[in-house]
């Protein structure tokens, strides 16, 4: 406990996951606002990070605003931003065939990355809720002809009101079954994402805490670093999953309500 208090005393910024952490679907948890004000009152800050590449920053700012949470643009981080910055730095000028929603395609265009449906340099797989068989076969043909493929986020499923829908990781699994090629993923838990979080927040690793409900993304992103990982049990992780997992958080709390108490 003393170790934990000592560790928390260094934290300046909480990077919060969204679904299962601050809300469930359309319902904000009753304690989320108290947690956010407790963070501010303790002299710390918070921002949000979501792996969901089917929506863009504007959509999330709007959703949060409807729930009564007003934040500045720079506090809303997405997997989309991680891959866009990486492409601009490491694959400058290369064109992409993007399997994604109109908002993901718009993010690429706004970042100045050329889109090409005929002769792209790279193939990008996103969480495409507008996926068609045509897009899949096109992507697979480009990959078979040697184009490198990257995935925006590795999540297999996305939680919705009544269960789950297949996410980017599942689309990539289908593409792999057809082509034999696996893609490198961005978003959480990619080390590119950890670097992105540190860059965007200006924090040193020991000043950052990532908070989320999913072990293989939210918690794994901090693995092997000085960043503190905090698991909330208000989402998809059950006590059984936690016991069996090789990925272990630095701290487990019931929910943000309990974390707020630790800050006061
Ligand atoms: Mg979550």
TrEMBL record:
Gene3D superfamilies: HAD superfamily/HAD-like. One of its GO terms (molecular function) is hydrolase activity. SUPFAM superfamilies: HAD-like (SSF56784). InterPro entries: HAD-like_sf, HAD-SF_hydro_IIA, HAD_sf. Keywords: Hydrolase. The keyword Hydrolase applies. It comes from the Bacteria. This is HAD-IIA family hydrolase. It comes from Neglectibacter timonensis.
